[in-house]
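Much of the work behind modern protein science is quiet bookkeeping, done one molecule at a time. Below is the pair of lines this work produces for a single protein:

***
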Amino acid sequence: MSTDTEQYFLKQFVDRVGKWHRRGFEGDRHTVESLGDDLAGVSVLRPVLRDEQRLFMVFPYIEMTTIDSMTRRDATRSDAATRVGDAMAAILRARAVDDDPERVLVWKGLDPKNIGWSPDGRLWVFDFGPTVETTLHDAAALVVAAGLLSRWVARPGLHLIAPERRILRGVSEPVAPMTTLDEVQRALRGHKELRQREPQREGIRAAATKLGLHTLGWVHWRSIDREAQRLFR
């Protein structure tokens, strides 16, 4: 949405099948309200307006690039990916529960794709979701798995068959020492199982998704598993 002088981003809270998702709305609000404006050196993107009835939030529009929106030219560089990976590691360390480095207070949307960088080089974190307390190993495994899959949703290209190792390592390597290969592989299996039962896909769309997962997707997942193993050599 936009006005005569400013642009805004509107996020409405619905679930994967299009139903109202009040729990997600309340969880996102609680998480954002619990954070300062700066999170381990990353700026927190806060809403400027909330609608409690229609479950939407309005955010200031900030031009930024994310890992999954990088162009092919951008993807030849790994410095931005490494900055995102370093930021994820710093956030995990900063979220220790009562100074216990083995437990962290994080949120459902903790994902490298939810950190972007604006043209001035500033990093922004957004799209939070409900807060959860978990072990550092589990939280880090989810972040590494998401990092390894971070280009899957980008524009179609060779990265679907041969993942861009520099980008994936840049995002995942700073976090890998916080977890283990077994935990990362378990998180990757969770992502794969989720895609196999996408609830919003029915009929032809569901069949096409399954076909894709068993053909091109199979090649991609094998490649991602090899990249995971390289991280822990």
User: Anything to note?
Assistant: The chain is about 40% helix and 20% strand. The two ends are 47 Å apart (CA to CA). The mean pLDDT is 85. The CA atoms of residues 196 and 209 lie 7 Å apart.
